[in-house]
Amino acid sequence: MLAEADGTVPHGSDSSMRTSNINNNINPDSSILISRMADVVIPYSSEVPCDNNGQRMWWAFLASSMVTFFGGLFIILLWRTLKYLWTVCCHCNIKNKEAQKVNNPANNQAADRAPKGPDEKEEAPANEVGWMTSVKDWAGVMISAQTLTGRVLVVLVFALSIGALGIYFIDSSDPIESCQNFYKDFTLQIDMAFNVFFLLYFGLRFIAANDKLWFWLEVNSVVDFFTVPPVFVSVYLNRSWLGLRFLRALRLIQFSEILQFLNILKTSNSIKLVNLCSIFISTWLTAAGFIHLVENSGDPWENFQNSQSLSYWECVYLLMVTMSTVGYGDVYARTTLGRLFMVFFILGGLAMFASYVPEIIELIGNRKKYGGSYSAVNGRKHIVVCGHITLESVSNFLKDFLHKDRDDVNVEIVFLHNISPNLELEALFKRHFTQVEFYQGSVLNPHDLARVKIESADACLILANKYCADPDAEDASNIMRVISIKNYHPKIRIITQMLQYHNKAHLLNIPSWNWKEGDDAICLAELKAGFIAQSCLAQGLSTMLANLFSMRSFIEIEEDTWQKYYLEGVANEMYTEYLSSAFVGLSFPMVCELCYVKLKLLLIAIEFKSEQRESRLVYILINPGNHVKLQEGTLGFFIASDAKEVKRAFFYCKACHDDITDPKRIKKCGCKRPKMSVYKRMKLACCFDCGRSEQDCSCMSGSVHSNMDTLQRAYPLSSVSVHDCATTLRAFEDEHPSTLSPKKKQRNGGMRNSPNCSPKMMSRHDPLLIPGNEQIENMDMNVKRYDSTGMFHWCPSKDIEKVILTRSEASMTVLSGHVVVCIFGDVTSALVGLRNLVMPLRASNFHYHELKPIVFVGSLDYLRREWETLHNFPKVSILPGTPLSRADLRAVNINLCDMCVILSANQNNIEDASLQDKECILATLNIKSMQFDDSIGVLQANSQGFTPPGMDRSSPDSSPVHGFVRQASVTTGSNIPIITELVNDSNVQFLDQDDDDDPDTELYLTQPFACGTAFAVSVLDSLMSATYFNDNILTLIRTLVTGGATPELEGLLAEENALRGGYSTPQTLANRDRCRVAQLALYDGPFADLGDGGCYGDLFCKALKTYNMLCFGIYRLRDAHLGAPSQCTKRYVITNPPYEFELVPTDLIFCLMQFDHNAGQSRTSLSHSSHSSHSSSKKSSSVHSIPPSNRQNRSSKTRESREKQNATRMNRMGQEKKWFTDEPENAYPRNIQIKPMSTHMANQVNQYKSTSSLIPPIREVEDEC
């Protein structure tokens, strides 16, 4: 009811009386009724029955909320009290009954046996769930976010709460209390609907609450008490009171929970940030609402006369300046309630402002700057680079990947790493912002993989930390990255770096890992050891190969210094390009010569695709020889200085470019030649071979022209033709069938008198077509001399104790022409992987007598750990000691070695980068400071039989044609060939004391690296980008440096972790027929005339035509350009010199030699000749000497037949070529297993005998280990 000053009017009085009273008191100029007291202004409308005296009813709204709250609280407490009393009483009765049962057990038993009366009810099951519990569980599910309905309900309640808060903001512009008609006030209707929903939700929450008391005191419950009941009072009284509706702002505290339910917030930082912001804002808005209420209402005890008109947003402003302790004073509280509230609010608000705001700013500032998502660009590929992302690794990668010599790199690089970049790395990204983007995240997180669009990436590159202390742990991390990426997108191409070779086997366990689809693992330990091993065969080769696959810019030097020629070669890189159809039908040496002379390109290999439908394998043939004929679409591997230069091989047209002398003018021509027929290709190749024009060539008669179709059917042209062109054409003229027997091939000149023609596709020699008893003996005896793949020499596993040499034994065994490996390591050191160093030195394309003995000098404890991977290789010895001991070095005759390799397994265990290579540097300087006697001169003066191998000028092995260089007398350690492995590139300055290298000079510009005496693993970083642009490059490099490691071999090593011996079969023996790297001397031999002032191009053509040797570089004395004699023996590398480059007699030429089947004959080494003097030494004789008993076990018949055959071979060869002398018989006893000959073997032998008189004898017999 409404209270008036002079009486009361019941609420239910007549409406006409109320209307008349209101009309009588209306001011005609205003619709506002001013009471007599002039202290309260209550706006009302004439259509709404309201108190004409303007008396306020705020206490009714407040009372509804207070009664609801305290009434419910009283009922809950009363219920709890009654329940407690009931529980206590019942508990006492139960205790008394239990005590009676304990005191009278006999009565209890009698009572239990007595039958129960029909009126006694059975006790209900204790586990039965009542309906109240079911309702409670249902309500709990409804208000929780565990189900879709619950999530929808929770989100809806929050949204309606924010909507109710918005209505409050709208109504705050009106007076605090006013008369409103519910049926005409739209906002009141909406607010009523919201509060009805809140009331229902409150009931669900109450039912689901386990503790009703705590539920009643919750913040959300208090908000409902002071906001829901006043709305119903407003409808009843037709009066609106703004009141405590501002408490709806407290619902903002649940904002983070709602976002978590919607899976919008997932990280702890984002959740914390939203929590802080929601608490701060809700507290701020709620306090502003209270100030707005009391300041616009006034103090009740002051009869509301001290009120002031403030808008809600002015109160928000007041609270902010108060919390921030600024207090401008333009707005302040006038009421006592307002000031009292401000006193307490300053205490809490100031503390909240001082703690929350800095934390919010910190979270916002620490928010991931690189936390966005990559947006793919149409028409532009992108790659993802992850793993070890540092300034050094990224700069090296970008420098090579974005090199200007690459032809238009339209690839965007996306780096993904879980640590934000530092300032230097960030600056590097900004310098390449057009092609580089960085995102913070982990490849182990699928969400981050989705951010960088890994499913649409062209490839994913994983970098490894080459300097980590635990290589196995680093490899395990990268393998997990591969698993995560392949699990997210199995089709993605992955190129990853691996540190240890044995960890590559784990990649094969990943089902989606497929090297045939472009997945590659670049094993740094394998390639590093392979590069060093190739330097043992041809010193300086590691530098040349490292420069070939690294992108280097050309640096022009005017002065005539060794750096000028070295840097000209450094500018060359390795590229691939498809060969023009003008080369179709030509042999590989012809194409190679034409490319070098005409196009100024060096072709070193081609890609061969098997024509067998069941295999469809792709091979890379390195300098395959003249038996290879090119077909359409052959991919070539070139050495050139620019990708644009290689395009000449694709654009070359004989009709348009035949008379062009400047290779730069060879560009895409306008003519479109018709596809050359098979007959035309053969004729062109034949005419090119015989050196005549097409009109003058008499290779064909006129009858051939009329039978073109027959020729094409009879002789389809393949990428590797087994006949040369003239033979094929003559065969067609003689009307031979499409397949010729071996005899008819010989009669028509199908096989040249050269070891370079072959009736096989992949081999120039079919072992079944080789005369002599050795081949049949090899097959029948089933002796294992090679591994199961035929790529490496093999011997039965040996115990490490049998290969250990003492210092005295090593001194007695006069070693020479060997490889000394100085290794630093102990029991705790990480394994270097010495097998990768030994495998290239035991490749099967070397004959047994050509294998260099290997002597390891180092800790025996460490070598025992490595021996498991070395026990199947022949000619391996161990001298326990230390590389820093000169006595140990003299014992192994380090002055007579072909190469000294210095390695360390302790490099990554030192934090100081400058000290990582201290052991290798000390060992290098120790060797260089040693002095020796003229051992070679003494040996030559004493006895020719004691001359170490390779030292005799008259020895056929020393012939420069076969790549062997005579060793000069070494009297000082500085002349010993050494290659030192370094971890830190800057430490290269300590290896040579006479150079002028600056510490900041790049590694490839330093003298030790240019000379091939230093190698660092950092040069292998370029292989990542090189492999991405052309995966065949990695295959070619691995083929060159590993000695023939294949994916099949890796699979076998993954199974057994050791090489497995295999019987010699035609297939495995054919695998020996592959080229190898050697060094060609110019001071003697058939090229001596070119050594003094000749042109490199003439040497290139002569070596290619005469011996099928492909030259690709020079190893020149450092001071050779001075023209005067010099004491310096240092040499440097010149890669791919131009045609007119002048040669000097002291030059050594890098070349790719063909495998020589006729060289399977041995030299007599020092230990072989003196086995009688050292037979007392059991270990020494087992390694280097031949026991006399071995020869006595041979049958005289076999010996006589071999001697007769050797004589026949030498008579046939004459004096044109000097081959090696006969290879020694097996150095160790062996058990021969005689097996019956199968029918297939008999047929092969008959075929073999039918051609024995027509093919030059070529031996395949090798001494077993």
TrEMBL record:
Q: Where are the transmembrane segments?
A: 57-79, 152-170, 190-208, 273-294, 310-328, 340-358
Q: Where is this region: Disordered?
A: 1-21, 103-125, 735-758, 1162-1227
In this chain, composition skew of type Basic and acidic residues spans 1197-1206
Q: Name one GO molecular function term.
A: calcium ion binding
Boundaries of every RCK N-terminal domain copy: 380-522, 816-960
> Could you tell me where the Low complexity compositional bias lies?
1165-1185
Question: Which locations, inside or outside the cell, does it occupy?
Answer: Cell membrane
Recorded protein name is BK channel
